[in-house]
Amino acid sequence: MLKRKFRFALYILACMIPIADQLIINFTLALMIGSIEIATIEHFTKVVFVSLGAVTLGSVLYLISRFMRISFMRDTLLDVRVKAFDKIMKSSYKTFNMKSKDSYISNLINDINIFENNFFLKLINVIFTGGTFVAVIIILGFMDFLFAIGILFISLLLLLIIKLFEKKTVELQEKVSNSNEEFSIDIANTFNGLEILKLNNIEDRFLKKTLLKIKNLEKRKYQYTVFTEGQARVSNLMGYFVVVSILIYLLNLHSTDMSLTRLIFMFQLSSNSVWSMVRLLPLLNELKSSVNIYNKITKSDEDILPASSGDKEFSFQSLIEVKDLYFNYEGKEVFRGVSFTIEKGKKYLIKGASGAGKSTLIKLLSKIYDDYQGMITVDGIDYKEINEDSLNQKVGFIYQDVFLFEDTIINNITLYKDYEEEKIVKAIDAAGLKDVINKKALGLNEMILENGKNLSGGERQRISIARAIIKDSEILFVDEGTSSLNEELGRSIENTILSLDSTVIAISHRYYQGITEKYDYVLEIVNGKINKYTSEEYFRGEIAV
């Protein structure tokens, strides 16, 4: 909010404008009731005109306040959305993978909606009620100093009592947020597996499970609502008894020479101060719960993990060396004392049974996982000392499932970065995309539908390869890049990958005779160990078997 200091100051001022309106209304109401003592039609007429003027002024002040607040609220909420999205986009692979993707969606939708609906509404009222309390105490101080001190003491006492509700309010709001996340994850999982559920006629079972999640979410919301409403009722009850006590005290003063107008005005001011304090702390409790939601969706989670980024730049000139590597994943030992080397410019094929650790090895070599024992070094520099961003700039990935944006072919290749036309053409030719683009009516500006629905599997994969080529990736990681393609397309793409100047580290179950042998080395994972073979050694033995 302090990003726009001047506008924030105007926002606070705008929240306080209604205080003047409230005091004017209190005074005019006191005048109207006090006119009973004077009991003349002339005086009453004057009071009525003053009251109409006060109401008109109040309406104008409200509109001014509203216009002063609305643009600041809009821009601040936009900043919150951007920060929440930025937190996700800038988190490390390790941090990102700690939670389900659907949890992040829940943060961006449900939690931001909770924050949007609660925060500014509560903040406006906190500023208004707090400002009203201060203004009233000052005015009462001029009218009756001891009375003002008494009202201040009683109000602060109420504040301390109501503060007992704070911890529970925050806790219940967080439970609502967590239940929203759980519900979003459950729904996403059900939709992702809907085809299997229908084919096996078990959708009713999952419907019951989903209904339980909905009931749990609604239960959390109900608990939060009941508790916040409950503390408001308790606060109001205490306020009622205090106001009755004030009224009795002021009625005793009226037996002296105090005018009815002054009596009514003092009563309104003192009751306003009490009700302001009664409303203030529940609002502060709810405001704090909104701030906790803000911290949850915008503050980095990196501090809960061991430091994963060093300050040295990634530079691969000669050799990546893995020494005595041990790694466990979710309690399972994946690698036991593994040692091998990766030479710049060579092509490596990772082989092994399902679950042996092939994808895990790629994640270790690409610094996605860093909680291993042993050493991984690049030209003698420890991986853990290397800045993650500098590594990401030098590596590329080709996966079995290619993710494409709903945008043009060119933007999906360049990923919105500026490249020279010559470099774009070279990447397109190398990836075998030239004929594909020539067939499109708009060429490179042809729009890709949701995740490439209007492209074939081979076309989608070639765009992925073009991405890696145009990036000038020093290391290209390929995880089953051709497994879903037919023989002809698979051979063509595998051949393209192996013709690149990059160091290639690939996982593949496919064997393309005459092409797969072009790998320089095979890294075979067996029982947590890695055996390194030349391609000739491995495939000569494998074919013989």
Automatic annotation (TrEMBL):
Gene3D superfamilies: ABC transporter type 1, transmembrane domain (1.20.1560.10), P-loop containing nucleotide triphosphate hydrolases (3.40.50.300). The chain crosses the membrane at residues 9-32, 44-64, 119-139, 145-165, 237-254. Keywords: ATP-binding, Membrane, Nucleotide-binding, Transmembrane, Transmembrane helix. Residues 22-289 form the ABC transmembrane type-1 domain. One of its GO terms (molecular function) is ABC-type transporter activity. InterPro entries: AAA+_ATPase, ABC1_TM_dom, ABC1_TM_sf, ABC_transporter-like_ATP-bd, ABC_transporter-like_CS, P-loop_NTPase, Type_1_exporter. The keyword Ribosomal protein does not apply. Coiled coil: none annotated. It is a multi-pass membrane protein. GO terms for cellular component: plasma membrane. It is found in: Cell membrane. The keyword Metal-binding does not apply. Residues 320-545 form the ABC transporter domain. It holds the Pfam family ABC_tran. It comes from the Bacteria. This is ABC transporter transmembrane region.
